[in-house]
Amino acid sequence: MQKQLNDVRERYVSGDLSRRDFVKYCAVAGVAAGLVGGPFGLARQALAQGSIRFDGWGGTTSQAFRRYAFEPFSQATGVRVIDGEFGDMDTYLTRVIASFPPGGEFNLAHLSGVFDYARYVGLEFNSALDESKIPNLALVMESMITPYRKLTPEALSAVPYNLGQTGIAYNTKYISKDKAEELGASLLWDESVRGNLGSWGDWRTNIWYAALHTGQNPNDIQDMNAVWDALRAQVPMVKKYWGSGAELMSLLAGEEIYATVAWSGRIAHLQNDGYPIGFLAPKNCYSWQECIFVMKGTDLDVAQQLLDFMLAPEASIAVAEGQMYPPSLDPTKVDLPESIQKLPAFDPTGKLDGYLFADPLYWNGNQMEWAERWDRIRATS
Asked: Which of 68, 149, 317, 332 suits 326 as a labelling partner, its CA being 20 to 30 A distant?
């Protein structure tokens, strides 16, 4: 069996076998042989029968996790991954808070931004991962790990997994590239899209873009009255506040909206399918990274094996191709294919210089006031 695995790996390296088939073969072969190690560095011996829950963003993102990570992991270990979905971060956190004890109903979550990590740590929902049990963490960009270490220097409770940008999507049949680039963030306030404008219901995203529209740094807003005025002016222009990535894609594909804030990977999917959708990342575009957070009370032995499996290049790249978000793997340590290098938000240096991420202390510190104010403004639509 080991010889067969080596032969398959040689075929994969030479280009005679697709990455997706390679992932699937190794998972099945691992079960059959009960191998330790192998191309994923995952202990292949079957774990005790059981399950672990993973909650994510649904749609194409969850599909990629399921196909290229969860199913192969379950085949290799006998542990079933229960795949849950959520539409926004605040609603999911409410569900986690309502569950007791932490780690009982919820185990792992695909959280967005370092500010989410800070929120869960502040609620003492964090665990203490043993990095020696996650050797593939060494392949991750240090620029993505550092923000988490600053918040919990004693131990990580999550691993960075991917990154992206919330930019502006626009239909090129109705809005030219030149116009979009000229207006930047202000495209979302242009009269030409009145009645055909979309946005995500998230308070952070809307405030972030209102700050850009009014010429301010989203991480250091000096004139909040200007932001609120901009949002009040925009609300009557919006046809639909979408609530999920699937809804975003449907609205754009059906030409119900012509412009909207949008997640880079979802737009890459539409472009790949031939839809006339452009993507604009204006100056100080909302950049973000996502982590896989492990809740306190979770079986760490199982969680760490799943994390290591998911961070292995073969699985991580396959998931990234399916989701169309760059993986957290350091391009200076891992040879990433062209399919990854051409994705929006990919940084060939691995340093992420020039990417503006939300300051977790700043945004979390203003959440209660700003979220409530945003809800009142949006309610006028």
From this structure: 149
Residue 53 above 90 pLDDT?
Answer: yes
How high is the pLDDT of residue 354?
86
Specify the CATH architecture of the domain 2-163+290-341. Answer: 3-Layer(aba) Sandwich (3.40)
Q: What is the helix (H) or strand (E) element at residue 12, kind and residue range?
A: helix 2-14
Instruction: Give CATH for domain 164-287+358-378.
Output: 3.40.190.10
User: In whole angstroms, what is the distance from residue 199 CA to residue 188 CA?
Assistant: 9
Indicate the domain borders of the chain.
Answer: 2-163+290-341, 164-287+358-378
Tell whether pTM > 0.90. no
Do the first three CATH levels of 2-163+290-341 and 164-287+358-378 match, i.e. the same topology?
yes
CA–CA separation, 103 vs 108, rounded Å?
8
Residues 159-214: pLDDT tens digits? 999 999 999 999 999 999 999 999 999 999 999 999 999 999 999 999 999 999 99
CA-based max dimension of the chain: 67
For residue 31, pLDDT beyond 70: no
Q: In this predicted model, which residue has the larger pLDDT, 7 or 365?
A: 365
The pLDDT-based confidence of 3 (bands split at 50, 70, 90) is very low
Strands (E) located in the chain: 36-37, 42-43, 50-56, 79-85, 108-112, 158-171, 197-200, 238-242, 259-263, 277-280, 286-294
Report phi then psi at 110, rounded to 5.
-90, 80
Report the relative pairing of strands 50-56 and 108-112 from DSSP bridges: parallel
